Automatic annotation (TrEMBL):
One of its GO terms (cellular component) is plasma membrane. Residues 1-11 have a biased composition (Basic and acidic residues). This is Ion transport domain-containing protein. The chain crosses the membrane at residues 359-382, 402-419, 439-457, 463-484, 505-524, 562-585. Residues 1-33 are annotated as: Disordered. GO terms for molecular function: calcium channel activity.
Length: 680
């Protein structure tokens, strides 16, 4: 077992790849140095290329591109074919720095990508023996490859083309510079460090899932004396709103498709026949696997990639990791507080939520819900029984003694909930303020505490405070609606409707309300009958009652002049007939639209609840219920991912649901390739 002490990290491991202050100012080339002008010879060659029999299907623009590339190649050869003047290197390194392309990456990248494809296809000359797969910029200290330059500038179209023709570029690293404490870097690491989301996502999707997982996992030494942190922090990528595509690409790499009827691939084969047989079997792999292996160790790790548990070499069982940082926020917590909807709905995240929810989440939330119901019961008895007592400070009667016990229990539970809120704020800090329920928690608890000094001085305002506090604390029970899926979805849908539709309706109603009330009060002055409604405040109250109770302003209109009657009838018709019916229709439409948001919010609420439960003192749930992965069958995956899709036909067959699931999973596993496994 490892000794419990923090690992010491080599400075070169933690050094940021590049910082703006370390970079030399780029040399901006002159436009005439990029390529020659389009003279008469250029257009003659374009015409010949376009009319060439070898290039029958070539377009005019493609002919221009080929001639321009040919001129770059000719200039390269005329200058002695120096490696630092390679046309593809010049395109990737020098062209983006030209003044006419500054700040116009969307203009220069498609051009470079087309030229690069022409050069990469030239396997008889420029890319002979796949030269560009090992090509490096020897004039640069870190000896970058072409893919490194594409990663630096977020040229994701170019990166995709380079990977298509030279996949080995993904594995080539820059040279380390020990004096500057710069380690070797893969192209994808440069893209992630520079927050080039598109380029990083392209590279991640073309890398093996084992390699991607290792980038975000810690690197322990054999004796666990000085383990190193992960090369990249998944927590930082999740927290960065600019890296949404990379986040999804990384999550996709946490899914490994499985075909159980196929032989395992090996790194070393006993014979050529065995190699050919296994490779041919894998060459005919069907698109849809029977099940999937979901990896959770990266999602459950801390900010340095350390998992909660590690495998003990002696017992071959998972044991708590002494280096794991329990205070680090979980990835689920970061995803829940982000606005990355695709990450919330990702199959790996959904299945990890289900795993934790079934393991401890639903049980603990049910216990907390039952405890809170008990709190509401004793609170109700303490307040309602107290409201019937003559002297609240006397506890002589039997029911008053029971009330005293209820008041003490209420006070104790209020103190417990306040301590829990303080502890939660200390752990979550800024994330704590984003939760809509936390404000209502504090309001309800503080109102109950405010009753104590008011009762001590026997002030009647204690009942106003108690009334509002009682209402707020009862409404807090909605925070436990996630115990049941139906209740959770219904509560979130209702919340969306109240937040979105009711304010808009009230704004429109306020305009009509004040205009009609003011006009009515002024019209009554013409007949000196303003006293019929008892003043302007009574007019306002009557106008609100029309909306709330659907009752007329007055039972009879005797004493009202014709204009007042006309205004009353118009106002009631507008509010009761038109506005209320429009509101009902609007709520019906919004209810259907709010279902999707409610499903999303339900998943987010469960993630937040699970993250808080994992941080409960003394329970250590994050470590206790850790699981590094799980095998998920197609059927179980379909039940979870398609469970909330109410728009689907109720009589849909299992096969139809599986086909829908396969369409979804093909987007994740389509770029994955089986990886050879070393024999033990």
């Amino acid at each position: 077992m490892a000794t419990e002490r923090k690992g010491k990290y080599d400075p070169i491991e933690m050094q940021s790849p590049t910082t703006p202050s370390e970079q030399l100012p780029p040399v901006v080339p002159k436009e005439e140095e990029l390529e020659d002008d389009f003279d008469r010879d250029f257009w003659v060659h374009v015409r010949k290329m376009f009319n060439s029999e070898k290039e029958k299907s070539i377009s005019w623009s493609n002919a221009m591109d080929r001639v321009r590339v040919a001129r770059l190649v000719k200039k390269y050869k005329d200058n002695g074919s120096k490696p630092d003047q390679d046309p593809l290197l010049i395109l990737v390194k020098i062209w983006p720095q030209a003044s006419k392309y500054q700040g116009k990456a969307d203009l220069v990248e498609p051009l470079i990508q087309r030229f690069a494809q022409i050069l990469l296809e030239d396997d008889k000359d420029m890319n002979k023996k796949n030269k560009y797969e090992t090509f490096r910029d020897e004039s640069e200290k870190t000896k970058k490859t072409l893919l490194h330059y594409a990663a630096e500038r977020n040229f994701y179209h170019l990166a995709r083309t380079l990977i298509e023709y030279c996949p080995g570029l993904l594995a080539l690293k820059t040279a380390a510079i020990v004096s500057e404490k710069k380690r070797e870097l893969l192209p994808v690491e440069i893209a992630l460090d520079k927050e080039n989301d598109e380029a990083a996502a392209v590279m991640l999707r073309h890398m093996s899932h084992e390699r991607v997982q290792s980038m975000f996992s810690w690197r322990p030494d054999p004796n666990l004396q000085s383990p190193r942190p992960s090369q990249m922090s998944f927590h930082k990528i999740l927290s960065n709103p600019k890296m949404k595509k990379s986040t999804i690409a990384i999550l996709d790499c946490m899914v490994n498709p499985h075909w159980p009827y196929l032989p395992d691939k090996k790194s070393d084969y006993l014979s050529i026949e065995e190699e050919q047989g296994i490779e041919c079997a894998w060459a005919t792999v069907p698109e849809d696997p029977l099940d999937y292996h979901f990896f959770y160790h990266v999602l459950d790790s801390d900010d340095c990639g350390r998992p909660p548990k590690i495998k003990d070499t002696t017992t071959n069982k998972l044991v708590p990791n002494p280096f794991f940082n329990k205070k680090a926020p979980s990835c689920l917590n970061i995803i829940a507080n982000s606005d990355n909807i695709d990450a919330v709905h990702h199959p790996v995240v959904r299945m990890l939520i289900r795993l934790k929810w079934n393991a401890f989440g639903q049980t603990l939330l049910s216990i907390r819900g039952i405890t809170y119901v008990f709190f509401l019961l004793v609170l109700s008895f303490a307040l309602l029984q107290g409201s019937t007592s003559v002297d609240l400070n006397e506890y002589r009667e039997p029911w008053d003694r029971v009330r005293a016990i209820a008041e003490f229990a209420t006070f104790a539970m209020v103190c417990f909930y306040i301590f829990e809120e303080i502890n939660q704020f200390a752990r979550e800090k800024r994330m704590y303020l984003k939760d809509k329920y936390n404000l209502s928690d504090w309001i309800g608890l503080l109102l109950l505490l405010a009753i104590i000094p008011l009762r001590a001085i026997n002030h009647d305002s204690q009942w106003h405070v108690g009334s509002v506090g009682y209402l707020v604390n009862f409404l807090r029970i909605f925070k436990f609606s996630c115990v049941n899926k139906t209740a959770g979805l219904y509560t979130n849908t209702l919340f969306r409707i109240v937040v979105n539709d009711i304010p808009r309706f009230l704004c429109t109603f306020a305009v009509i309300f004040f205009s009609f009330c003011g006009a009515l009060f002024l019209s009554l002055r013409a007949s000196s009958s303003q006293s019929l409604l008892g003043g302007f405040e009574q007019v306002l109250l009557s106008g609100i009652r029309v909306l709330a109770e659907a009752q007329p302003v007055a039972e009879e209109y005797k004493g009202y002049n014709w204009l007042s009657i006309l205004l009353l009838l118009t106002y009631m018709g507008t509010v009761i007939v038109i506005m209320l019916n429009i509101l009902i229709a609007q709520l019906s439409t919004t209810y259907a639209q709010a279902k999707y948001n409610a499903k999303l919010q339900y998943d987010v609420d469960r993630m937040l609840l699970l993250a808080r439960m994992e941080n409960y003192p003394f329970l250590n749930l994050r470590v206790k219920h850790y699981k590094d992965g799980d095998w998920i069958s197609e059927l179980n995956l379909a039940k979870e991912l398609l469970e909330f899709t109410e728009e689907r036909h109720s009589l849909e067959t299992i096969e139809q649901k599986l086909n829908s699931l396969r369409d979804l999973m093909r987007k994740i596993v389509k770029t994955m390739k089986p990886v050879a496994v070393k024999e033990q």
